[in-house]
Design brief:
heterodimer, A: alpha/beta, TIM Barrel, Methyltransferase, Methionine Synthase (B12-binding Domains), Chain A, domain 1, 8-stranded parallel barrel, globular, B: alpha+beta, NADH Oxidase, 7-stranded antiparallel beta sheet, two-stranded antiparallel sheet, 40% helix, 21% strand
């Protein structure tokens, strides 16, 4: 492999060049031509820029090939020149620096989003990057830099492609926006973890902002990896002045920052947009004589989602891996995925993450389905919904590869065994896609009976992994659990194995605990006891159902007892929340219970006011059992309660959801009361025909009004949305309505209300009209001749009541 | 043209409360906070934020019209033209969170769960807003590295701009075919939780903005 650059930075700070694009613009590059075509059309200019940087002190120059990929060149009809443009880019840089400098082949983003964000597949992106990288390597580049990348998914494809295209060092540099996140939400630590595990030789940050904006990113990158770190800030933020893009950071200010970057740990320092050879000269001058600040931190196993990293190891708080998300466990789930929908799997992931899972296990294994396709769909769905890193659960290499390609992070593969076939099939995938892996203590003979034999199986996996170049920190061992009912010592063997693996191999351990209780009653009791014992022996990750709160409680208690929870931070965080919730509950209850001093409210009134949908039916039944007249239930309790809710809403004490909750409770009460009321007395408060007018599909306001009117005893005929004028009039005539209620959201549909009122007046029809909707005002209602304007649902009920009583 | 098949969004609970009319200074009953959170969790799997955007170079601006290079598409209307008068480029965008939420809101109403319906409606409003904000932010960043500042996003039908423009923009972006966003005769959008908007680019110095910046869309560092 070409390692000259890597060798150089072992004992030297490497100064990179500055901007190419803005320098070309100064020489006349127009907005309508790709900078890379100058490699062919105006090579002297390109050489001149490279030489200026080199002579200013840049030991490494980047080729003018940032956008020389198939997608971007196609915009200019230049795809057939791809090889030439890239080769020329390398040749011109070499011409400028000779053998005294490094030629670094530049590869920029494709300018389109890749799956699941956009349309381009991982494989397509990989092929496009491979094509460009191969051209650069063939032409003799000393290294490749992937720069200005803002999507972790895209840079993963680019990195794999560049490494496959030739034996060459690859620097992977991303660009960050506000709050040290890339456009797609990745933080520098996650980027470092993912890129390092995929085999980047160096990581970095470029473009983004001026040097000040990059300080924190550099600091985090240097803390998160021992790899060499590159930094290339813009010369401040650009401003377009008199048609020209200007950058205002001075060479000296850039140089001052570059010294700071080196002190933070960066070993490659250059500059990006807007910088000039003057900036490079100042940077090179400032850094002269400085030596690299090497780091040798020890890291635990790290798994990463697109925007979150989780650590697993002896010095970390143990983690919970949410038991398998399995979209194929039930037929309708598999059908859903096949139809391209992922509702259920997303919901499952969300609930598990919310319940406290740090990582989520995804499994798609059932016979007769296209497992790789399902895994890809499942991974894409889950990673777009939750941040927790994923554990890809399959023994099928094709399925795992589909998941690993689709995943924009560092996954944990679940799992490899100590069987030769498994080791040979699974570990190369783990290595290639930069994953971590769970090693099961099981070999060709099955699950070993003794702890010592299980340790041997684990050691075999470790040895095989290390031979392939997988670092031991990416391996976690599952010592396996057998049913204690079948073999009384099995739990102890597992516990001993955990301890041995930890002490002898120094590896973290993971365990699915529920097998222990198989065949026994009260399984959860045994599972909890086993989990706490395992934690005490040093377990680092537990595969459990996070929705089982008792199990989670045991987990936090066990971690605390095992001495893994410094200052009881996690324990207190979990249980203080529970205590608060309990306190909150009791406060709510206290609030709800009428005090002795206050006059007691009837439970039915209270239920409506509180919106107690669950209990109101039984309260109505209780009142009926007590022989309270159904009409009295309505008139003395329910309606006054509803009026009280309306008053609270008008006073701003209640908000829309509370209003609706009371309305829902009232509807439940009505449902139960209706047959009784019909037996006692038919009461008629009037009929209202409601509709959202033609052309308008926004009907939530009208729906709320309908419910409120029904609750107040009106006969409501709800025609729905997008209803033609004639249909509304016909319905009012047919239903012998007293009032028509019209709703419209937009100025384009509001005129329909006036048209309907005109028809009513013209034909002397006996209907009163009330109008409402987001853009409707009282003045507008008056202008079109409406009889009332309902600014909200409560107002609408009041107006309809008055209209019915003839008071308006 | 940029397509986004799954826009990553984070819902903003305080915005959802605002949509529900609950003001920030009010003590919120823990029961409602819990209910809103429950509905957010429930709805997340039904929200499918998709979008697309396209940036056009301004060729000429008259009193009531903006013409663009290499397209017959025009931005029409006096107020919106005045608003965009200093722009060199304008990005047009369309986003939707899909029809599932509309169906669920309707279903909740039909089941007598109007509380859930109104909360879900607010969740949907925030979700589509967040999706539009995501694109807004991406455009802002693209503009910044090219030396532009951006104006606040504007949508047809909100005072500055006639709602009829929804149709022109959806055609420009081929939004119906690409993300299933239809424009009705009344120029309303289906699915209901959808946004069509424009964002103008003006030279950075012109607005006196300085901070920020990140990804380079087409530029060569």
């Amino acid at each position: 492999m070409k390692t000259e650059i890597l060798n150089y930075i072992k004992s030297n700070i490497l100064v990179f060049d500055g901007a190419m694009g803005t320098e070309l613009q100064k020489m006349g590059l127009s907005e309508n031509e790709p900078p890379e075509i100058w490699n062919i059309n105006k090579p002297d200019y390109v050489v001149k820029i490279h030489r200026a940087y080199f002579e200013s002190g840049a030991k490494a120059v980047t080729t003018n090939t940032f956008g020389a990929n198939r997608i971007k060149l196609a915009e200019y009809g230049l795809v057939n020149r791809l090889e030439d443009i890239n080769a020329a880019g390398v040749r011109l840089a070499r011409e400028a620096v000779g053998e005294k400098g490094f030629v670094v082949g530049s590869i920029g983003p494709l300018g389109v989003f890749i799956e699941p964000l956009g349309d381009l597949s991982f494989d397509e992106a990989y092929d496009i990057f491979y094509e460009q990288a191969r051209a650069l390597i063939r032409a003799g580049a000393d290294a490749i830099i992937l720069e200005t990348m803002s999507d972790l998914g895209e840079i993963r494809a680019a990195l794999l492609a560049a490494k496959d295209a030739g034996d060459i060092s690859v620097i992977a540099s991303m660009t960050y926006a506000e709050r040290e996140r890339t456009l797609t939400g990745t933080d520098p630590e996650t980027a470092a973890v993912v890129l390092e595990s995929l085999g980047a030789h160096a990581v970095g940050v470029n473009c983004s902002g001026g040097p000040k904006e990059l300080e924190k990113v550099v600091e985090i990158l240097c803390r998160a990896t021992n790899l060499p770190v590159l930094v290339e800030p813009n010369a401040g933020m650009p401003e377009l002045i008199n048609g020209r893009t200007m950058f205002k950071e001075t060479p000296q200010s850039m140089a001052n920052y570059s010294k700071k970057f080196v002190s933070l740990g960066a070993v490659m320092v250059g500059s990006c947009c807007g910088s000039t050879p003057e900036h490079t000269a100042a940077i090179a001058g400032e850094l002269q004589g400085l030596k690299p600040n090497h780091r040798s931190r020890l890291f635990p196993l790290r798994a990463a989602g697109r925007s979150r990293t989780e650590k697993i190891g002896h010095n970390c708080f143990p983690v919970i891996i949410g038991e398998r998300i399995n979209p194929t466990g039930k037929k309708y789930l598999a059908d859903e995925i096949r139809e391209g929908k992922t509702k259920v799997i997303k919901a499952d992931a969300i609930s598990k993450e919310k319940a406290g899972a740090h990582l989520l296990d995804v499994n798609v294994g059932v016979p007769g389905v296209d497992e790789p396709a399902l895994m890809k769909a499942a991974v894409q769905a889950v990673q777009s919904t939750v941040n927790a890193p994923l554990v890809l659960d399959s023994s099928n290499p094709c399925t795992l590869e589909a998941g690993l390609k689709a995943y924009h992070g560092k996954a944990v593969v679940n799992s490899v065994t100590a069987e030769t076939e498994s080791l040979k099939k699974i570990l190369p995938l783990v290595k290639r896609y930069g994953a971590a892996v769970i090693g099961l203590c099981l070999d060709e003979r099955g699950i070993p009976e003794s702890a010592e034999e299980r340790l041997k199986a684990a050691a075999r996996i470790l040895e095989y992994a290390q031979d392939l170049g997988i670092p031991s920190k990416d391996l976690i061992i599952d010592c396996l659990t057998l049913a204690v009912s079948a073999e009384p010592r099995s739990a102890l063997v597992t516990l001993e194995s955990i301890e041995l693996v930890r002490k002898i191999l120094g590896l973290p351990t993971v365990l699915g605990v529920s097998n222990i209780s198989f065949g026994l009653p009260m399984r959860s009791v045994l599972n909890r006891a086993f989990l706490t014992a395992a934690l005490e022996r040093g377990l680092d990750a537990a595969i459990i159902n996070p929705l089982d709160t008792d199990m989670l409680d045991a987990f936090y208690a066990g971690a605390m007892i095992a001495g893994r929870d410094k200052n009881a931070e996690h324990y207190v965080a979990r249980f203080s929340q529970t205590v608060n919730e309990k306190k909150g509950e009791s406060q709510v209850k206290d609030k709800e219970l009428p005090s002795d001093k206050e006059p007691k409210m009837h439970p039915l009134m209270e239920a409506v006011i509180r919106g107690d949908r669950e209990n109101i039916t039984s309260l109505v039944e209780k009142s009926l059992d007590e022989k309270i007249n159904p009409m009295d239930i309505l008139d003395k309790y329910l309606i006054p309660a509803l009026e009280e809710v309306g008053r609270k809403y008008e006073k701003g004490e209640y908000f829309l959801p509370q209003l609706m909750l009371s309305a829902d409770a009232m509807q439940e009460a009505f449902k139960r009361l209706k047959p009784e009321l019909e037996r006692v007395e038919k009461r008629y408060r009037g009929t209202v025909v409601l509709a959202t007018v033609k052309g308008d599909i926004h009907d939530i306001g009208k729906n709320i009004v309908a419910i409120m009117l029904k609750n107040h005893g009106f006969n409501v005929v709800d025609l729905g949305k997008n209803i033609p004028n004639e249909t509304i009039i016909e319905a009012a005539q047919r239903e012998k309505a007293e009032v028509i209620g019209l709703s419209a959201l937009m100025t384009t549909t509001m005129p329909r209300m006036g048209e309907i009122i005109d028809i009513i007046k013209k034909n002397n029809l006996p209907f009163k009209v009330i109008v409402g909707g987001a853009a409707v005002t009282e003045r507008y209602a008056r202008e079109i001749g409406a009889d009332g304007y309902g600014k909200d649902a409560v107002a609408a009920v009041n107006i309809v009541s008055k209209l019915m009583e003839g008071k308006i | 043209m940029f397509f986004l098949r799954q826009i990553p969004i984070q819902l903003d609970t305080s915005e959802i409360f605002r949509y529900l009319g609950i003001k920030g200074d009010k003590q919120i009953d823990p029961f409602f906070v819990e209910l809103v959170h429950r509905i957010i969790s429930y709805s997340l799997s039904y929200i499918e934020p998709k979008g697309l955007y396209h940036t056009l170079d301004v060729e000429n601006i008259s009193e009531d019209k903006v013409l663009f290079k290499n397209t017959k598409f025009q931005l029409k209307g006096e107020k919106i033209t005045r608003y965009m008068s200093r722009c060199r480029k304008i990005t047009f965008l369309a986003v939707t969170i899909g029809e599932e939420i509309d169906k669920m809101i309707e279903q909740f109403f039909n089941e007598g769960k109007s509380t859930e319906a109104v909360i879900l409606d607010a969740v949907g409003s925030d979700a589509v807003e967040q999706a539009a904000n995501w694109i807004d932010n991406a455009v802002k960043n693209q503009a910044k590295v090219k030396g532009y500042s951006t104006l606040s996003r504007v949508s047809p039908g909100y005072g500055l701009w006639d709602i009829e423009a929804n149709l022109d923009i959806s055609r420009l972006l081929n939004a119906e075919e690409e993300i299933g966003l239809r424009v009705l005769e009344s120029f309303q959008l289906v699915p209901r939780k959808s946004v069509i908007a424009a964002k103008g680019w003006v030279p950075a110095g012109a607005l006196g903005e300085k901070k920020g910046g990140n990804s380079l869309e087409n530029g060569n560092p």
